[in-house]
Design a protein that fits this description.
- The chain has 145 residues and is mainly α.
- Helices cover 51% and strands 0% of the residues.
């Protein structure tokens, strides 16, 4: 039997874990699929994360996407709508009611379309980096009061 020497504990940890492809996990999240298998659903409803994947059983309940998804959604929508608004104002000079009738539905539609996909991508990244309980060998610290 061959023995393997590790120079540090982190080398030992890395050898026990198969690396997870970050891009693939995030793309699966964008499709609202499990970052592990790519088949099961990440969400049980619009933005509620499922406790576990209904296909492979990967536990998803410990994700912590918090405010990152809304932040990135606002950032993306702002970068789409502000230049559009400036171009329309410069070349067309429409009345204010035109903005209300077009931009408000556009922003709401984009937010509803983009938000769950960004949240799924963040969950996929957390899974790929083994953050927040996605590491099988580590447990999250429990706050004791």
């Amino acid at each position: 039997m061959e023995t393997v020497e590790y120079s540090s504990a982190s080398d030992h940890q890395q050898s026990r874990h198969k690396t997870r492809d970050r891009v693939q996990a995030m793309l699966r999240g964008v499709r609202k699929k499990c970052p592990g298998c790519g088949r099961g659903a990440v969400f049980s409803s619009f933005l509620k994360v499922a406790d576990s994947c209904n296909h492979c059983g990967e536990e998803l309940h410990h994700q912590k996407s918090d405010d990152a998804a809304p932040y990135f959604t606002i950032l993306i929508i702002g970068h789409i709508t502000v230049p559009l608004l400036l171009m329309v104002e410069r070349y067309l000079h429409p009345p204010v009611w035109v903005y209300a009738a077009t931009l408000i539905p556009l922003v709401i539609s984009l937010a509803l379309l983009i938000l769950p996909r960004i949240k799924g991508a963040i969950i996929g990244l957390q899974w790929a980096l083994r953050m927040h309980g996605f590491d099988e060998d580590k447990t999250e610290p429990v706050d004791s009061f």
